[in-house]
Fold this sequence. Notes:
By secondary structure, the chain is mostly helical.
Amino acid sequence: MGKPKGDGARSKSRPSSSSSAASLLPSGVSTVGFGGYLGSSRVDSSSLAEDSVAFLDVDSEMTQHLKRLGRKDPTTKLKALTTLAVLFKEKPTEELVQIIPQWAFEYRKLLHDFNREARRATHDTMTALVMAIRKGLAPHLKSLMGPWWFSQFDPVPEVSLAARLSLEAAFPMQERRLDALMFCVNEIFLYLDENLKLTPQTMFDKAIPADELEDMHQRAISSSLLAIATLIDILLVVKMPNSDNGNCSPEQKLVSRARTAAVSSVENLLAMHKCFLQHMKSKHPSVRTATYSIIASIIKNIPHVLNEENVKVLSTAILGVLQEKDASCHSSMWDMLLLFSKKIPNGWSYCNTQKVVLNRFWHFLRNGCHGSQQVSYPVLVLFLDSIPTDVNLGEQFVDYFFQNLWAGRYSSCHSLADSKALFGAFKECFLWVLHHVSRYCKTTDDQSELPIKLINDIFVELLLNDYLLSASVKKRDESSQARSDISTDGGSSLSHERPQQRVNSSHQAFFTEELLRCIIGILLEISQEDQNLTCVFCTSFQKDCLEIIREGDSLQNFPECIERIVRFFLAIDKCILLKGHDWPLHFLGRPLFFTTFPVIKSMDSLDAVKLLSILVEIFGPDQIFSEFDSPNAMDIETKTKHFFHTFNNDFIPWCLEGVGSFGNLKLDFLLDLFQDDYFFQQWCAVITYCVDDTKFTETSDNISNIQVLAILIGKVRERIRSKKLGRLRKFGLSPEHWHHDLLNSSAISFAHQTSMINCHAQFLCAVLGGSAEDDQLCFLSKETLIIVWEGILRKMTSLLTSSSFHWVHFACSLILGSDHNDFLKLQEASFSMKVAMAQFSFEVLKGSIFCLKIIDDSCTLVSSLLATLFVLDWENCMMALTCTNDKFDCSKYAGDIDNSLLETEVLGNEEQVDAKLALGRKFCAYRRKITPNFLKNTSRETQSRFQNILVKIVRFALLDSDDLVSPKESISFCEWVLDMAEIICDTRKEMQILLDQLFQEGKSWPFWVKSLIDSGNRVATFQRETASLSVNEHHNHSFVAFADKLVSRLGVDVVIAGLTEISIGSSRIEVVSGFSSPYKREWLAAEIISSWEWQVSNATEAFLPLLSKYARTETSTLEANILFSIINTLIDGAITHETHDHWASFDSWRVLHDEFDKINDPFLRGLVSLLSTLFVKEKVWGKCEAIQLFKQLMDKLYVGTSVVQYCLRILPFILSIIIPSALENSESDGTTEEILKDSLHENPTRKYVMSWLENSLSFPSIISAKTEQDVEEWIQAVISCYPLRTTMETGKFEVSLLRNVSNEEATLLLSLFRKQVCFNDASAATNQKQIILGKLIAVSVGYCWQKFDKDDWSFVLDNSHRWLESSVLLLEEITDSIDDAIVNHTIINGLECTQKKLEISLQNYDPWIFHLSTAALVTLCLLSQPEEHEKTDSTEALHHIKLGKWAAMKDQTMASILRLFFATGASEAIANSCNGNLSNVVASSRLMQSHFWGMIASFVWNSPKLVRSAAVESMKLWGLSKDSISSLYAILFSSRPISSLQFAAYCLLSSEPLCHLSVASEGSLEGEGSSFMESELSLDVESSSEETFCLRDEISFLIQRQSADLPEMDLISQERVNVFIAWALLLSCLNSFSPSSKAREKMVQYIQDSVSSTILDCIFQHIPLKSGANNVKKKEIELAVEASNAANAARHSITTCSLELYVQSLWPVRIDTMASLAGSIYGMMIHLLPSYVRNWFSSLRDRSLSSAVESFTKAWCSPPLLLDELSQVKETVFADDNFSVSVNRSASEIIATYKKEETGMDLVIHLPSSYPLRPVDVECARSLGISEVKQRKWLLSLTAFVRNQNGAIAEAIRIWKSNFDKEFLGVEECPICYSINHTTNHSLPRLACKTCKHKFHSACLYKWFSTSHKSTCPLCQSPF
Length: 1920
């Protein structure tokens, strides 16, 4: 290897590449071939010398590429050929002519190349050359023509095509190509002869693999042979050109010369190659094929060259060639064999015919021609014809030929074409033999017997019997076996396996079809030439058919046999009868019918009946029966009588008896016997036989006949529809022809009788028709039709009488109408009878519903029937709902009813329920399938009646029925009405009419508002006295739920606005209403809103959003605006009802559903909720609508000069909502005063507000005892004009002003406020007055605080503090009573007594106190918003806030708020200590005041540290059974949580002064002092570091929860949320300790040892990750929304070391907020507990999860973590004389260098890219003076420190350095871990062995004892 080949070294003159070699050749230097060869002959030196001058001008580059053609590498050849092709196009002709000799040499070699691409490229290059030199090729044509011609026959099509194109390029004209061939004929034969002499060893002198050489050699031989054969064909068929004179023209001489040369060359070839016998025996098929071709060409064109000797040699080889098994050779083989037989017939005499030809021929046929069926089968007849007549073929030649030919049918028939070729050959050969019988017969008798023998033995025995698969297969097999036991040399016996065993099933059908076509073809030819032979065949055929039918089903393939007989007759009909032949009728049809009918009549065979039917169909009943049992001629009357006698006595009973599976075919057969001449008589005879008046009794036994008649009528219908009536041409084309009185009477009897028989329903369906929409064929009269459907209706309604629903009974009586007696009779029937009648009616209806169109205009039956169908559907659905509500197994309703039991006490007998549900499902499915299209096509009268019936039923069910309707049932009724409307209502006007019918006034509807028609207009009236019965209220709520569902489905525009048209705008759909619709229903909207709550929904959740959505699209005038109409209706209703609700107790500063519930009046409540939705929540309405509404309100408030008192009472409720919008300033320029002045004349709102303010100043103070009721209401109205808005999110509470006020307005408001200040005794006022005062104070502080003086602030603060203190004292009193009840009475009085006392204590909650405290908190919040204070120009006001009384009282107020907070938490903690249910009671009591507690929480979040400390101290002094931390935990993990309180508790627990005490139990912190400063607390913790660490009980059960339970929880369940919050708190407290503190070490060690890592599994349940490779870049990772939130949260928690942001954003708990919290906890974990996380990651067994976690961490967490770790190392690890640290951030490496005297060591810490999931690698980069053992020990020591460190790497390095320092100071290391400082708890070895004195770490020794199960010293093994 590596040794240079050839010369020993490469010099500068030796090129390094072929292109460089060409450039180094001197110009004009050329060579001629390799070794001095040109072509295939050696070039003499003299010739070279002569031509040396000519070669001097050859281009050196072309020469070099020619040389490269001799390379072995095919790639090099291809490149050289491609380059030469390009050069040939570029170089001049003179240069190209010079290289032709060298090219010719390479060309010959390349033609034999193994690579086909090289050969193809050679011809492409040849094309380029000849195109370039043109005539310059002539001198060299003879040297090139041989190879050129040879290349035309390359076996690769692409190569041969390229060769042909190159030849055509040189000689475009065909005549020129022929001339070239004749001109070079000798050279071509010479070249091809040389190729035939080649051997694999002499072809190439290079080392070529043997398999390649073999392939090249056989290609050369086969191509050469084909080239010779083709050349012979071309040259010897060329016509000699005509010559006008006797002299031969040059063309004639050329042709003559070429022919002579060709013949001479062929003779030489035959002699030289021994007639090519060697090639005929070649193992390569291509060589043998070519040999067959050349011999065929010689025999065809020049047979005279074959002398007798040659013929003797060739005859055996040619005639014995049938042993050829390769199908690719067979085409040439047959050409050679046929030409030899015709051209040289005497050649057969030179061989043994039987041995050489026939035996091989039989074998060839038996094997299916070895796969060449499509080639060999068509030439068989030619082969038979070519056999010389004097050849003795033997007596059995014909039999053997057809036997072997037929035996090969299954051997290799793999395609349809193969089978087709076989049958074509069989037919041709059979007919050829029949025409040439004399060639195979010795005597005249034999000539007459042979055709019959051929018919019987070949045609019938082989073809027909194989087709029929008759019962005599065994017999025939035995006889065939006897004939086939002929064994010859190399032969085998014939195979007679059944077709099913040999033929591929996929081809069986085609095979049989082709076999039948072959039989018919032969039969047709025979019948045209010899009727005797036809009779012979027909006789055999009849015999076989009769044998098959007699054996019947005992025959294995009897149905298939009959089917093939039928197909045979169909083929006869198609191919023979249509051509006018009548012999099939006389010889086949009629005789077969005569002989088989008695047999068929006695047997039950479907297939046999089909045969008779086909015979009648083909030949006709008149032809079949013309001689039936009547050999003598008869007159017409006698023949008719005889025919009817036979028809009535034989065919009718036989065809109508029974209803078996074959009965349908017998009925078809019976109908086929009908004829126009006897139609009515035949039909009457059939009906009379089936139906008789005397048999119409309930115990009749003619059921089977009725059923058969029904089937027969169905068949008549199908024949009429398809117009296939057999021989009927005149009658039977219309259903009227088939009418009969017996049919009418039978139908009426069956429809009204009480006995339900299936065949009767089937009969009715048959005579009624209408099973499909296009089926209008009815066999009854119209009068009969009506009577029949009346009976069906009664049967359908029978099932309704058994219902348990009252509305169903009402529906039944409504449908039956005046037929009350019928209703009673139906009720009296038994349940089983009712079900049977309903089932009967269903079957008739399903099979005949479209028949109803015939009577649609004649009666009301159609609407009643359809209504009944709907009611049955509805009842079934209602039963299913009832079963669902009562916990039935409703899975059965999706399918058939099974035998499972139902609760009988609810629905009755279980069997009845099963039967009814099963039948109801059928009606339901059919109704939904058929009614939409059917009902739309009925008349308008029918639809109207149908609508009226169903509307009455729905209203009765919802309003008048005694049944209580459930929510699901109300929704179901709505869906049913919508379904009905979709079917009936084509226009919106029709829909409005339907809605008017539905919403008509009823007994319990409407409840609050009803509609009246006044002067043609709809007006709403109010019911002052509503019904008090609960049943009526329930009905009303049911109907409201129904109406609400209708509105949600149809839309407000349809149901409420009553619009009948919709205009589509350019950008959105707008509801245009410029006029009041006559169908407007504002009263309905008011009724729904006033109902407020119904069943499972309410107005705010369901109906108001629909109105809001509609308001966005409505563009109409005020008069036509439906929403204004609704609001006016609600205002009028509130005034009319004289509401007693007071605005003072309503928190208008926030808009929530629970505040609306506090309003008692239904109209006022609905009005406030609707206005809040439109103006505040959805902001659909704005200033314009507010002003319009204000104007309307003023019109209602003032009636002349008087004020409507109850309108004044509701005025504040409305003003507090619309004032912000009504007084909204749209202009952005100009002062407030200018805006107010400009808008005053357009907007009357400000004018009214100013007047109310001025009037209120004339009233006495609100807290005065003399204040009247109307004064309070006017003051409330004024306060409502200055709205505030309180907004609260988790962690934030704000109060905002909703409008601007002018200076004048603020002055008036301040005056009103100061009027209250004059009365200092505000505490003596009533609660309502104090609340009004509180709201006035809050409004004044918000809108005019800039004008406050010292006294004003003092009044505000004193009252606010007083109100807060009152709530604090109340709550502390309640807490004391709860503590007393729990501590002192639990054991004595029991849990029930304790709970009762606790509930009594909670009843002391005074809502008025909380209302006052809420106003105080709002006031304090306004004072606490510094950004608002900074906007004022009043420095005096700002001075009063910052330095006045507020500054002195602020901490005191905050302390009161914290007391409230701790008190409520303590109450729940105390209650929880006794029982969880008690804590649930306490927590539930806070929910009613959730907004108040939210405000409390907001102040707690912002409380100063000193105030918190004081509050904790006060909790200690209070002396309750639970401390402050327990109180906070009770709030944090409350059973009825309030999110704002939870977050406040979390903030207190995770911040100073409680963060160091909030998670550790009291036992873990002995010596705790009274100070809460961080330094002192840290010392306390440090002092207890040696004690056992434990978590507090409140958090321990969450952190240490069972690992199996946690992953199974719901992702947003309260328990899982609590676990995540507990972990967030634990991590926050852990982070509050310094990294080097002992307390932190203990907490980390506790988590590592005692806490399961299941929390990490749960974290990644919230982070949906995709598994992928670890090398994915961060930008390339595609995350889901939750995963993206988690990734950002994890990165944020790592960089900020805080979880507060994501705990705050947790509420309301959702999937995404939980994902963010999970991500932040994970980020904090890998930052604070890297070893803990790494251990979890290493334990993962799910590879996909592991990969996904690593990818997530690597992309989002590791980069900031690595940056932080390296920064800490650089900033916190201080270097000294012995130790230094350097950081390589790009490589994430830390290099620690430790030097001591003469020793030193460099350790490299490499942090992986997925840190900390993958362990840190530590390696020694350099060491000096340190032994290998110690070096390894130190390396392992540092590795242990950095891998076990649950904290920063910097801390691990610091501890490791301390370990080194102590070792050099002489401190002994622990013999177990080989470290001085313990790798986890960093303790020193202190436990010494008494024997060997070695010291150990306590943790190492404990681990040693536990793993070794003995307590001996690890070194000396002495007891420890």
